[in-house]
Amino acid sequence: xxxxxxxxxxxxxxVPPALTLLGVLxxxxxxxxxxxxxxxxxxxxxxxxxxxxxxxxxxxxxxxxRRYGFHxxxxxxxxxxxxxxxxxxxxxxxxxxxxxxxxSSVCAVRDGRSVDTxxxxxxxxxxxxxxxxxxxxxxxLLWLLxxxxxxxxxxxxxxxNESGLLGLSGGxxxxxxxxxxxAGEGDEAAATALRVFAHRVRRELAASATSxxxxxxxxxxxxxxxxxxxxRADVVAGLALLGIRGEVNGDPGGDGRISSPDAAVxxxxxxxxxxxxxxxDTMAALGAG
Length: 289
Known about the structure:
Nucleotidyltransferase, domain 5; 2 domains; 6 strands
């Protein structure tokens, strides 16, 4: 609990509310075990090359600066479902996975382990999200912080709450459903937001693919990945260089394959069920799984 409190500012949209809830539950249910299931655990064994930032060693050691990764509960669930769908053991799969939702990320899985992921020290790194910026030039942040009209709190708020799809669309929406509809009606800012989003997801997928020796499947999960066929199609359309070609259908009717049967690299969708993965991990921690 103390360690989680010390690092709460790394994920300000998630950890502080969770710790508040945990505090209330511990007070009201003191005789019941309480289990924390970190979203970072799935990425805990990232290879050194993928986890290490090119920063001074004294910083890395003093402050624990490394790439932690997030969406681990979602990726763990999606990995097991993909194993079932492909009828192959998870420990034998090499997958490109992407969780697209309010927060979005990419992950490469080899032999059942995360070997690269787009989120890093905080959930701000990586692809643009609903309201979070994703990766931007750190030099630009330094430049902005030297402006007389911007302070640290303002910049932090804007990066977490006014950027991403919301910022790209000129404040119209951070929801891809709204943006797809608006783009269809000729809203150029909405169309640009969707193009930037798909481009950045493709770029992260291509980068993560370098951590694999083959691609057994591309897996979409998260609210957008599961239920936004237009976004999935835009992402897949730019991945021919990775051997991911062909059209994907709009609705798999549940977890399943959305690429053609003869596709060299199958494309799958898996409904996000992080709440069920939380149950699995909790039962395992209590020795009942």
